[in-house]
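Minimal example, chain plus flavin mononucleotide.
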Amino acid sequence: MAKYFIYFSFTGNGDYIAELMHEKGYEPVKLELVKKPNKIGFWQILKYGGHAGFRKKEKLAHVDFSLKEDDEIVFGSPIWNDRLSTPITTFMDRYNFNKETTRFILYPAGETTKKSLKQIKKLGFISEPLVISYPLKKTEECKALIEGAF
Ligand SMILES: Cc1cc2nc3c(=O)[nH]c(=O)nc-3n(C[C@H](O)[C@H](O)[C@H](O)COP(=O)(O)O)c2cc1C
């Protein structure tokens, strides 16, 4: 059985959580876009927020990963337009992730993640996601939340 933290990150919050999850024995699997924007500003937020709203599939760079039945999976996603980020939803479609054991860590810039929580339920996953707001700004809080949950 292997433990994986499959995540996406434009601006480092996901990377920080990946480090903490690695300490907990989860191998990080970082998803990357084939075409990466040079910076994340207003236009990029508009563009990728739109992708999330319209459930666009992204072109992802190749990543070494294969799923075995008893693997333990935790997804890590920033919140885009109150939803899961599209690299994560794109990757989720490729495998039959266990609906009962797969877990989620969501890292919004605010507190609201209403649509993403609905989205996860609608996809059939039963576990309550761990929501960590501002991981890079509130590192101690983030550490404590990870410590308590894993
Ligand atoms: C395209 C886009 C849309 C976003 N939409 C939201 C949002 O609706 N709500 C929110 O709280 N944060 C939103 N954010 C902020 C990110 O969710 C937040 O900064 C996250 O921690 C970034 O993770 P990362 O640094 O690993 O990329 C958005 C960011 C981007 C790039």
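Strands lie at 3-8, 27-31, 72-80, 83-84, 103-107, 130-131. The domain at 3-149 is CATH 3.40.50.360 (Rossmann fold).
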